[in-house]
Amino acid sequence: MDCTLQIFLDDRWVDCTEIELNGGLCQWNHLVEYAIEHPDAPVSLAEPVDLKIREARPLPAFLYDLVPQGAGRRFLLGELELPDGADADFPLIRAGAFNPVGRIRVAEAVEYFEAHVERHPDARGLPGLRIDDVVVRSEEFKERLFLHGMLGTGTTGVQGAAPKYLLTRDRAGLLHGDAVLPDADATQHFIAKLPRGNRPADEKVLRNEAAYMRVAAALDIRTHPELPTLHGDVLLIPRFDRVARNGQVARLHQESVASILGLTGFDLRPSLFEVVSGIRKVVSDPAAETLEFIKRDVLNLTMRNTDNHARNTALQLVEGRVQLTPLFDFAPMYLDPELIPRALRWYHPDTRIELTDWADVLAALRVPDRERRMLAGELRRFAGQIERLPDTMAEQGVDHDIIEFLTQYVDTQVRQLKALQPLEA
Ligand SMILES: Nc1ncnc2c1ncn2[C@@H]1O[C@H](COP(=O)(O)OP(=O)(O)OP(=O)(O)O)[C@@H](O)[C@H]1O
Ligand SMILES: [Mg+2]
């Protein structure tokens, strides 16, 4: 089984990489023209653009960013009549990766999508929807999204457990399924995220995700300039991998930390020290991104966003620079009925023992001492913002019972951060 990847460059899709899967061995290589003309536009930040033939078992890590998950995965498995499991990943990419987040797609999946649209001639030229139609999820909405290439109850182009739709706003302010609206008509791109399930806690988590993002923005964490907005139980999240300007859409490279670290599959748990060193290898400013990552983790610990798995942190290439994307999927996950313990932790690189104090984490970080001092100083300053967090959370609309529950975690973090010494100064 094989497939061809395409990358969006200079306003068009360019064939870039050929992939072949044979008896559990996957081989891939870049196409000559792409490799020569676009050495600075990699398919993965972890792999240079060259003409080598590479091998992996079962699949190269970067392909897992394209595998449909959640509702989109379940729908496509039904369409393809396949049982779920690791063997389904490649067929799912070949059918479902026609419009993923980022700027890589699969040519065969585009054909699959076009065949779907052709079987539904009514899909052409339909007017867009208002956000209220999405909130009510009327029959018309469901039918429209099916026709608009969402291929069922969830989209195949964006990962994660919660049901989502990729929507694009046109010039009249109406929303369309992302894959059907021509770039020339697009003004803004969104992910519409629904509660994970229909229990009250699911709705509470999503409602507070909007407030959590406002809190992160107030603490100067990197966030998209336009924050998510809540409409009924739908969180409308502006996308940061797309920029619509002057009738053109730029697609930015986006890649999960799991892919950067070469992790295959969906449930691998690297130590946060490995995550940091993986990030530092590819970003333009390692010191700044390390600080940003650690501040995000202080917030994860304080605000109990326990679901910090390796696909909930990603990198982007924007204006020639590689950096962490704006924050996403930041929510009071401790409330999730599925009881999600903190996924990734600081396991000491040598002893593998979990470190739970920032002084120990900073001491074990493999960074120059000058940088360690900078980190300690910045985190001590951050302690003041964490101390004021209960007020900030109240101002930004976090539920009161959540704020109350978090008091103990605020205290712990403030104590640890204030105690950071100007190490080895
Ligand atoms: N604003 C955004 N712009 C671009 N891509 C985004 C944005 N927000 C999320 N994503 C991408 O969409 C994926 C799914 O989003 P998100 O993590 O919020 O969903 P989820 O269902 O809550 O995930 P999980 O299974 O981790 O709980 C992310 O892993 C990321 O790749
Ligand atoms: Mg997620």
Automatic annotation (TrEMBL):
**Protein name listed in UniProt:** HipA-like C-terminal domain-containing protein
Q: Could you tell me which residue ranges the HipA-like C-terminal domain spans? A: 157-373
Print the keywords alphabetically: Kinase, Transferase
Q: Which family does it belong to?
A: Belongs to the HipA Ser/Thr kinase family.
GO molecular function terms listed in the Swiss-Prot or TrEMBL record: protein serine/threonine kinase activity
Q: Which InterPro entries match?
A: HipA-like_C, HipA_Ser/Thr_kinase
Taxonomic lineage is: Bacteria, Pseudomonadati, Pseudomonadota, Betaproteobacteria, Burkholderiales
A single Pfam family it belongs to is: HipA_C
Spell out the PANTHER family in the cross-references. SERINE/THREONINE-PROTEIN KINASE TOXIN HIPA, TOXIN YJJJ
Residue stretches in coiled coil: none
